[in-house]
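Hi support team,

I submitted a single chain yesterday and got back a structure, but I'm not sure I'm reading the C-alpha cell output correctly. Could someone confirm the output below corresponds to the sequence I sent? I've pasted both exactly as they appear in my results page.

Thanks,
R.
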Amino acid sequence: MTNPPGGDHAASPALIAEQPQETPEQIAAREQAQAKEAADTVIQAFGGVRGMIDMTLPGLAFIVTYNLTHQVGNAAYAALGLSAVFVVVRLLRRETIQHAFSGVFGVAIGAWIATHTGKAQDFYLPGLLWNVAYCAGLAVSALVRWPLIGLTLGPVTGEMFTWRTQNPGRLKAYTKATWAWVVIMGLKPVILFPLYFTGDVNLLGWLKVALGIPPMLLAMYVTWRILLTAPPPIKAEVPDED
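Hi R., thanks for writing in. Yes, this is the structure output for that exact sequence:
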C-alpha cells in the first residue's frame, strides 16, 4: 500500500473539509472575549485596590497623628512606620512589594522634608510634585505616540509593543486612555496645590486622602471601558530557544 503524495503527514481533502470553520459571529465573540480579557488586566497592572490602599493610608496616618500630637516628627514617623508594616506584611505573604515599596519611598522623602522644615504641609510636597510630573509624562508619551498606558499594559497582556506596529486600533485606544489619565489625575494637583500654599494642613491632608483612591479607580474604569471596544491584543512572538 503506497502513501499519498506528501507522505504520512499530508492531510486529505476530506480531513480538511471536516475542520470546523468559524462563523463571523464566532469570530466577533472570540475577539470580544480577548478584548475583555485584556481590559481586565488594568487593575492588575496598577496594583489593584490593595496597592492603592498601601499608598493612601500612610497619608491618613500622618494627618491623624499630627492632629493628635501637633508634632511634625511624630506624624512623619507614624506614616513611615505604617508604610514599613505594609512592606513587611507583603514580604511575609510572598507578594510583590512594588507598590508598597513605592509608598515607603515617597513617605520617607516627605517625612524627611517635613521634619527638616518643620512645616507639616511639606510632607505632601513630593506627592504633589510627582503627580505633576506623572501627568506631564503621560501627556508627552501620548503626543509622541508612545502612550504610557500601552507601555504599562503591553507586558501584562503579552502584546509588548505589537499595539504600536501591528495594531493601530489598540494604539488609538491606548492613546485615548492615556489622555483620560492626564485629565483625571491632573485634577489632584490643581485642587491640592492651592491648599499647600495656604498652609491649611488639615484640609490638605484630608483632601489628599480623599483624592487618593477614587481618581485611580475612575481612571482605571475609563481605561477598562476604552479597551473593551478596542481590537484584541496581538501577542508578541517569543523566539524559540535552541
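A quick pointer for reading it: The chain is about 75% helix and 0% strand. Let us know if anything else looks off.

Best,
Support desk
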